[in-house]
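#struct-help
A.M.: can someone run this one for me? Single chain, 508 residues.
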Amino acid sequence: MKSDEIEDNFMNTKPDDWPQNGRESKLELIADKIREFEHDPSYKTREVLLAVVCNNDANEYSSFGRMRVTEFEAQLINILYVKAERLQINSIKVYLYDLITEATRLQKIMSWNNPILGLDDEDGYRIKPYEEILLPQLKLYHFAYQKYTIENTADFSNQLITIVESCLNEWTEEEDIGDLAYAFLAMLTDISNMRGNKKEQLWEFTRDELSKLFELEAYLLKLWKKDITQRPVKGMLKIQVSNYILKSRNGYNEDYICKYVSRDVAKTSAENHEIWMKEIKYLNDEREQKVIPELFEDTSWLPYQWATDFDFTPTRKYFVTSYSKSLNNGDMQSDYGECTYGYKNDRIIELIGPIGKRQFSKSNGSVDDENITLPFISQVIAFDVIYDREEAREELRYLFSVVDQFDLSDKQKHSFMEELLQYWILSVKDYKWHDERERRYVIFMYKNYEYLETVIEDGFLKIGTSLFLLPDFILGNNPARSEIAFQVENKQQALMSKEYFHCMNCLL
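D.P.: on it. Structure tokens below:
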């Protein structure tokens, strides 16, 4: 049976009165847009899908309707999560965690009516379909947030740790511990992909909190007796550690992200719907990738013997695009162009990732009788650039302390750290560039995959994208203003639950 047929059969089991609230309606819409992207992968269908799951503003979400959570909803959340995993669209998974947050919070509010309804507290705030059906990582998150929002006595990280520790006290079977370890690993990896907005502040752990979470994760993985140098655990650890440490720079800076381009580039990008990225060796800083290796020339600041003699040779060809956290910067306009494209959060990551295609078989996750080919979005890593060498050393010492917590030999720690440093060598520059407040995006592309709307020519990686057609706002004398205004207004009209009020000059 084909996956579309399986999904159709499942959707036919939805309650007769579905949907009854905004959450149910949104879940079905996401399912529709995922299928459209699967069947017709392009920058256009990607934009529509990401627009549905990347809420910038309060009037893009409605909780109106009947307060209920059905078994069908919990099953649909699981299906969407698995699809997001295969498509490598982290924004969908982040949205599902946010949706669980909202449902759990609303259920707590409903529990205030328990005395009137004759229910005890526990029955009033429980969401049994979530408890019984959700995937382990989603279920763990639900329980942790439920404890956090009901008790309101500790921060979210401590409540999460308490939930995991209580499970460890009750579970003794190796299989149960393995399930808990994987759930915790997957959950931390998933929410590390947050885009950066006020709704996600719950997940913005301080570095002290992160140390405690990583320590618990290391302990769970040791109990699991899992070889963490093998896939998929190794890759998940690399993603979450680099995501969280790099994103926690500047205290999870939530400033607008902007791109300065010339009028010619603005005009061209509105016509060809592409972003052009240079290979890193062709950027205007001749000292790219040199600052971090220079820090290791003096070993006196290094806290561990295994943290020396790293090979900083790039392991792949890096294509980079640079943005800025410095808005209305005259020097930037003079150097790069007067047209400014602004974005409220980091949905940029998945708007510029090359769309690839890969084959799934039964052995690697296909539910079909035959192999299927599905699109995916290639990995993009984003970070604020550091311009202070002492700050870089301090962060690296912190990174070393995180890696040192895991049950690895010194040789394995060195190897793991060497792979992580591939991210870090791109993220530190000389102080003279500090006024740019650069936010950098690095594209990861792999051999043996077919990429759509993507070409490498004339030293540029050219990718089809809606990025310059649908910014969150624009500044400057942009020759594509009328086309951008038309597209942005249409998008706002399609997404809003309440009317937008925005400036007709900058569209903000």
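A.M.: thanks! The longest strand covers residues 274-279.
D.P.: also worth noting: The first helix runs from residue 3 to 11.
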